[in-house]
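Example 3.
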Amino acid sequence: MSRTNEVDRILQGKVRLVKTHKANHDHFSFPKMLGIGLPTILALSHSNRDISETNLKGLADGLGMRKDEFAQSLQCHIGRNVIYLCLASHLLRWIEGKFQADPIVHEAGCRAMNRSVLNLIAQVEKAFTPNKHEIVVLNRLRAEIEARTNHEFISTFKLIDKLMIDVLSGR
Amino acid sequence: MLTPATSTYAPAVLLVEDDRPAREYFRDKLNEETSIGVIVARDLREARSLLESKVQIDAIVADLFFDLDKDDPVHNLHDGLDILKFSASTHPAALQYVNSFWADREGYIEKADKLRLPIKTWFSKQFRMPGDTEAPWAQVERDLIQRRLSQEWADPEEGSSDFSELKATEAIRRKIPVIKRTYIQELIDTRFTVIKPIEVMSWRNEDAFVHASAIKLGLLTDGVGESVQEALASLMELIEQHVLDLQEVQDSSEDYSAFVKARLSEYVVSSEVDR
């Protein structure tokens, strides 16, 4: 299977994204029925060649994952729950930066994104059992969250953290 | 998403000084009046330890004389010149300065020559001598910046470090990711009308592609292409797609899609579009 097909399979199957084919790019977004309320989260450029390393890094960045983690998800080692947690944490870091830069200008957008992040977290199963690859990713996310102590959306970070602690401890 | 440039130049100076008031004065001046960072060593042992560690040091400012309990006889380090000699082995590219009340004492300049130390300036601790036009910390900063610039536009093929304005501009263009501000005033699909110019920031990213971001719309993805034009075309496509996708989003919703929809409606209107 080509890498393009592999990526398609994971994004549309495992991550449940909907693909829209356009002239320059394929756009990937969450279906409205999930009620997450996020616009297009990934765009993948067309090319005559198979997906490049650069494309993979871009996709990984867009999901809040490291390139090797995304590669592991292509090999089915990292599942939807962990990918959603990566994305949620990534989007929170994004609004963290926006809010700190200018809380007045960005407040409305940040609060809206916070709402969507909460919707995204609600899609994560509460009692999944992570495999060894997923445990590494969850610990990475936890370390990043622990470094954040004081900002407007800390309660959502803490919510993600609590979910991960529960999963890691098997509760 | 718009990401900041990652290439930065942040030089640091090692200040080796056993006299506390002098050390704190020079350190504070570096911190408050220059763009360079400072790390201090209170005696020669600490200086040696820092030099042996992997701490980044771009320049060293050393006192000449150290009290007996502040030297490092085990490693044959007795004065400022000894530590500068030692630093030549650990940090050969670091610029060297002496800072002492006795900077002009006979014998030391001779010793420095003998040790082949490339000391740029012998500062007097009186800091501002009659005739001085520049404070020592300002001179260290200027020397570091100048060296960095000469490295940036040295032509490796010609071995030249000619400071021409043209080469400087080229060096800056190559090294600093320039962010271009432009505007989208129409979309590709003529069924969409741009009613207010959409501000776009574009830049060449680390992945070598040009990214274009409509920052005020709050889109989560950038337009991407091999040129600015391609990235803009890709962004236009993305905006059109968002207008279509978000048509059914409830205005009363509080999620991010509703926010982007509201933003988009300030910039783009669409006639009846087939879904």
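Helices of chain A lie at 3-14, 53-62, 67-74, 80-101, 103-121, 132-146, 154-168. Chain A has a mean pLDDT of 86.
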